């Protein structure tokens, strides 16, 4: 083979078969090290999000099981971050958990914070703004359970202003009027939800009690 032919053959084989090409190859050990560093970086960056999502999952599980004290511990962790502190869902769930364990002051506090940040919700997949909840009815419920009927009434009526079809607000206002002895006003509120399965049995019980109160002097 002539010198010229050897030169052409070397060119056809490419740089990988030349001494210079072999020197440019990255050692396997270096590639492995780079891969490990990238993986560690990804895990480090994703760790806070994973912890938040797992804590969120735990809080939901506890709420579903009715273990509100354990749910509170998880939700309190979630609102420690700047984002969580303004998350209306976390705040409202904390309000609900405290309501269920009978801590009405804490319940009202978190419901009010949820109302303050109620518009703090992400856009949907089409980048359109989502509808946001109104928490006035829940605030009113907190005051109702606390026994502050006048303040409860104020917030419940705000709930109806935000949503005229708010069945819970109508029902709780009926309870307030019943406690005040305004039975006919109570009936006006109760009839709004009388056919709803979620309220039907409670409304029937109130109707029975109202009938007893209205006709007890006749007997």
UniProtKB/TrEMBL annotation:
Keyword line: Cytoplasm, Membrane, Repeat, TPR repeat, Transmembrane, Transmembrane helix
Pfam families with a match to the protein in the record: TPR_16 (PF13432)
Claim: Cell division is one of the keywords in the record: no
Main location: cytoplasm
Annotated PROSITE patterns: TPR
InterPro entries: Bac_ResReg_Asp_Phosphatase, TPR-like_helical_dom_sf, TPR_rpt
Record field: transmembrane: 28-47
Gene Ontology CC annotation, any one: cytoplasm
TPR repeats: 88-121
SMART domains for this protein: TPR
Tagged with keyword Iron: no
Subcellular location: Cytoplasm
Family: Belongs to the Rap family.
Name this protein carries in UniProt: Uncharacterized protein
Organism classification: Bacteria, Candidatus Sumerlaeota, Candidatus Sumerlaeia, Candidatus Sumerlaeales, Candidatus Sumerlaeaceae
């Amino acid at each position: 083979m002539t010198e010229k032919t050897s030169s052409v053959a070397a060119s056809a084989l490419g740089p990988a078969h030349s001494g210079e090409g072999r020197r440019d190859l990255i050692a396997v050990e270096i590639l492995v090290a780079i891969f490990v560093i990238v993986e560690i970086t990804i895990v480090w960056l994703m760790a806070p999000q994973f912890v938040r999502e797992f804590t969120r999952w735990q809080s939901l599980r506890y709420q579903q099981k009715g273990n509100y004290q354990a749910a509170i511990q998880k939700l309190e962790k979630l609102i420690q971050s700047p984002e969580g502190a303004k998350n209306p869902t976390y705040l409202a769930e904390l309000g609900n958990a405290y309501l269920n364990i009978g801590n009405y002051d804490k319940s009202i506090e978190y419901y009010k914070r949820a109302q303050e940040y109620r518009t703090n919700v992400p856009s949907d997949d089409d980048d359109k703004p989502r509808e946001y909840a109104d928490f006035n009815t829940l605030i009113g419920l907190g005051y109702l359970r606390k026994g502050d009927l006048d303040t409860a009434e104020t917030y419940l009526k705000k709930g109806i202003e935000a949503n005229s079809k708010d069945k819970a607000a109508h029902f709780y206002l009926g309870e307030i009027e019943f406690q005040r002895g305004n039975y006919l006003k109570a009936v006006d509120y109760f009839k709004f939800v009388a056919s709803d399965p979620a309220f039907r049995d409670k409304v029937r019980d109130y109707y029975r009690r109202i009938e007893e109160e209205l006709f007890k002097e006749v007997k």
